[in-house]
């Protein structure tokens, strides 16, 4: 198949004579990109993102994957920018750093050009289909054009080359800047050949150096951590009447601080409490139904409530009521943000007989 071109100075290219990327090269490229992305994310978000040194840039079973939960807005933007940078390199240059180093590129199966942002994103999403039992990722081993399901769906092929035709947007930008488009990337006749030109070698060498540096940031050189607790103890006198009476409660929320150094950069992350617990003790058995309650209120007024009811006659030293340990209540606070308040109470016959509160 010969693709015509309106430009008189460009020789038509026979796209049927193509050298498809080996499956092993694609695997190596993904591994390199994983370490590059791990380094980028550490620089962008620090240890708050997690302790993973390797982040797969494609969906894969049991991978750490990409998640923005628990990050500040600034870190979320930085992580998104790190991921977007790799996506744009492939969308308009045909190759991520890993692909550039091993000498492969993702292009349109008809034009030989990078496929742009929309199709690149859709191709990444289509990799979810490849991830089912990993069949799609293994498909290049037997497919005549070495395509995954995502490649077939989006009309892309992965070729053994470092020099691809310029994406139309890139070509227009170059023409607007220089007045004419004469760059080697984009010239036909080289799409299926590994790059040997000085320009391509310099770019590849620069990408390799940057990738090695970023990979160094994907490995923790040293880590340290400490924990602290927000805690309050409330005690109550034992009544002389011989009736049931709460004697004390401890409300506690544990937080931690993590420091991690990668290469010469050290990042410290404060990990706020994920849950708050209230542990009650009391004297004598209950004479009527009694409720132990824990209420956590966020700074915006959002409430989380949990309680357990102690049937009349609950004895001293009992450890379980209807399958629920009584006296020990737990509520998650990770979704409430800073500034929450916890209050725990014992309620007898609709009346609060004892309560205690903790401010974060």
UniProtKB/TrEMBL annotation:
It is found in: Cell membrane. Residues 20-153 form the RDD domain. GO terms for cellular component: plasma membrane. Its main location: membrane. It is a multi-pass membrane protein. The chain crosses the membrane at residues 27-50, 70-92. The keyword Transmembrane helix applies. Keywords: Cell membrane, Membrane, Transmembrane, Transmembrane helix. This is RDD family protein.
């Amino acid at each position: 198949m010969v693709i015509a071109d309106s430009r008189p100075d460009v020789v038509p290219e026979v796209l049927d004579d193509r050298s498809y990327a080996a499956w092993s090269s694609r695997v190596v490229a993904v591994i390199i990109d994983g370490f590059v992305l791990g380094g980028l994310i550490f620089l962008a978000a620090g240890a708050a993102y997690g302790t993973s040194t390797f982040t797969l840039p494609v969906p894969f079973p049991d991978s750490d994957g990409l998640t923005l939960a628990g990050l500040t807005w600034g870190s979320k933007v930085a992580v998104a920018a790190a991921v977007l940078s790799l996506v744009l390199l492939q969308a308009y240059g045909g190759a991520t750093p890993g692909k550039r180093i091993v000498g492969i590129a993702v292009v349109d199966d008809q034009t030989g050009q990078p496929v742009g942002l929309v199709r690149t994103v859709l191709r990444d999403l289509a990799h979810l289909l490849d991830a089912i039992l990993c069949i799609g990722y293994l498909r290049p081993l037997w497919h005549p054009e070495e395509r995954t399901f995502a490649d077939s769906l989006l009309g892309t092929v992965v070729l053994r080359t470092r020099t691809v035709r310029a994406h139309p947007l890139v070509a227009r930008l170059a023409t607007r800047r220089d007045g004419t488009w004469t760059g080697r990337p984009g010239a036909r006749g080289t799409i299926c050949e590994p790059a040997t030109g000085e320009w391509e070698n310099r770019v590849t060498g620069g990408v390799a150096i940057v990738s090695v540096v970023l990979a160094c940031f994907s490995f923790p050189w040293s880590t340290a951590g400490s924990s602290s607790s927000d805690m309050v103890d409330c005690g109550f006198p034992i009544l002389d009447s011989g009736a049931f009476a709460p004697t004390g409660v401890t409300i506690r929320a544990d937080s931690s601080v993590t420091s991690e150094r990668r290469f010469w950069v050290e990042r410290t992350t404060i990990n706020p409490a994920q849950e708050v617990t209230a542990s009650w003790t009391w004297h004598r058995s209950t004479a009527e139904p009694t409720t132990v309650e824990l209420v956590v209120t966020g700074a915006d007024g959002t409430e989380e409530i949990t309680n357990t009811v102690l049937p009349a006659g609950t004895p001293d030293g009992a450890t379980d009521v209807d399958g629920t340990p009584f006296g020990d209540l737990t509520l998650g606070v990770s979704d409430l943000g800073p500034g929450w308040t916890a209050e725990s109470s014992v309620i007898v016959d609709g009346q609060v007989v004892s309560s205690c509160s903790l401010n974060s």
